[in-house]
Amino acid sequence: VKKWLPVDMYIGGAEHAVLHLLYTRFITMALKDLGFLEFEEPFKKFRAHGLLTKDGAKMSKSKGNVVNPDEYFKKYGVDTLRMYLMFLGPFSEGGDWSDKGIVGIFRFLNRLWNFVPKPGLGAPKPGLGSEALRHKTIRKVTEDLQNLRYNTAIAALMEYLNGMSDAKSQVSKTDIETLLVLLTPFAPYITEELWSQLGRKDSVHD
After folding, report:
1. Bridge partners of 94?
2. What sign results for the dihedral spanned by CA atoms 187, 193, 199, 201?
3. Residue range 17-58, pLDDT digits in tens
4. What's the rounded Cα separation, in Å, for the pair 148 and 180?
5. Residue 87: what are its φ and ψ, rounded to 5°?
6. CA–CA separation, 188 vs 204, rounded Å?
7. Residue 192: which residues within 8 A CB-CB, separation 6 or more?
């Protein structure tokens, strides 16, 4: 109990608010009153996630509007689907599924793939690097991740890639490596592959 509790963050939907969430809080408070615990709230933070809809309606089998992820895995890859789900709206509000939206994320990852130098094609041109943009992006993505603002973190990474694309002669290896590290929580597979293609022997996740 002393090592693991209270839990740092509880994430759940509104449907849990009057079921196990309420019971857990009640039991914890009772155990505190009985002298078994030193805290009365089981979770330091609570965050409720939004609802994913399609054409403005809640997804359900009876409506026949459920999105099957398998076909999108095959067509676009798992990184695209992961990123799109995090990008389509604020975490606390959810969003409306759109096939056009997922294509936008797919294009971004393709641009990233083409931007990062491949083995045998030469290293990035040495330059001063986009230092101001790099540090601005690191700060933005770090703060957004801590606050579950995944959509705005991804938007900042898109701006970062745009900025590097506009000034390619000034892009350093550090700039590119930073982009991959920041993108890893959203697109773990493509970033690991590109990290190794930059000549790194370790894992981008480390």
Report:
1. 51
2. positive
3. 778 888 999 999 999 999 999 999 999 988 888 888 888 888
4. 19
5. -95, -20
6. 9
7. 184, 203, 204, 205
Cα separation, 110 vs 132, in Å, equals: 25
Compute the distance between CA of residue 63 and CA of residue 20 in angstroms, rounded to an integer.
28
Q: Which segments of 46-149 does DSSP mark as H helices, in order?
A: 69-76, 78-87, 99-115, 131-146
- Pick from 193, 190, 188, 187: nearest CA to 83: 187
User: In angstroms, how far is the first alpha carbon of the chain from the final one?
Assistant: 29
Question: pTM to 2 decimals?
Answer: 0.83
d(CA 74, CA 20): 36
Count CA atoms closer than 13 A to 181's CA, side-chain side: 13
- Is 180:137 a contact under the CB 8 Å cutoff? no
Measured torsion, CA atoms of residues 188, 192, 194, 199, in degrees rounded to the nearest 10: 160
CA distance 106 to 84: 9
* Sign of the alpha-carbon torsion through 54, 59, 63, 64: positive
HSE, CB side, 13 Å, CA atoms: give it for residue 35.
0
Residue keyed to tokens 């409506």? 63
Placement of tokens 């805290």 in the chain: 39
